[in-house]
Every structure is written in C-alpha cells, then in structure tokens.
C-alpha cells in the first residue's frame, strides 16, 4: 500500500468552510473513486489541514487523481477548493512490512 500525507495550509478565517466542503463533497468523492481517506487533522495554530489517503500502489495515483479532476462532481465545485488553500504539500509514503528489520 502507498499513502499520501497531504498538508494544506488553509487561508486564515476559512477553516470552517473548508471542513464543510471537505466532509460534504471532497471526501465522499474520494471514497467513491477508490481513494480512501484514512484520517484528517487540523493544526489550528498553523491553519493546516492534514489528511492521509491511500492507494494500492504508486501507479494508481495518477489515474485516480485524473478521474477525480475529470468527475462531474469535482467540476461542479469549480474553484471552491483552491480558494481555500494557500499552500499544498504532498508526501508519498510506502507501507513498511511488519517483519521489516526482523531477523
């Protein structure tokens, strides 16, 4: 499994509306398209929204992201998501087997 740690700096004063948009539209669409959201957190001091979504492998990321952006649901959102976000940082992480390092 591969996961993305996604850190979004949300524009000041917009966290509440971002959370509503995320939980009403963005997360359900990700789930429907096979990009499960593992969890989400808020770092209020830094206005960061941090979330993790997972994939079977790296190759799946590009295809599923393309499907997301091409979907009618995402198109209907227009620039709502991007208006909330000042900065995006994405880190791809690979799962470590439970037996890693065990001899």
Automatic annotation (TrEMBL):
Stretches that traverse the bilayer: none
Entries under Gene3D superfamilies matching the protein: 3.30.70.100
Domain of life: Bacteria
Domain NIPSNAP residues, every copy: 4-97
InterPro entries tied to this protein: Dimeric_a/b-barrel, NIPSNAP
A Pfam family hit: NIPSNAP
Name recorded for this polypeptide: NIPSNAP domain-containing protein
Organism: Candidatus Entotheonella gemina
């Amino acid at each position: 499994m591969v996961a993305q740690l996604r850190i979004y700096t949300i524009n000041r004063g917009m966290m509440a509306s971002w959370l509503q948009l995320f939980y009403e539209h963005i997360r359900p669409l990700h789930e429907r398209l096979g990009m499960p959201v593992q969890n989400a957190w808020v770092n209020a001091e830094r206005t960061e929204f941090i979330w993790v979504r997972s994939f079977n492998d790296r190759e799946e990321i590009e295809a599923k992201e393309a499907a997301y952006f091409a979907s009618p649901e995402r198109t209907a959102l227009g620039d709502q998501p991007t208006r909330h976000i000042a900065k995006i940082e994405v880190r791809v992480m690979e799962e470590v087997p439970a037996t890693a390092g065990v001899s």
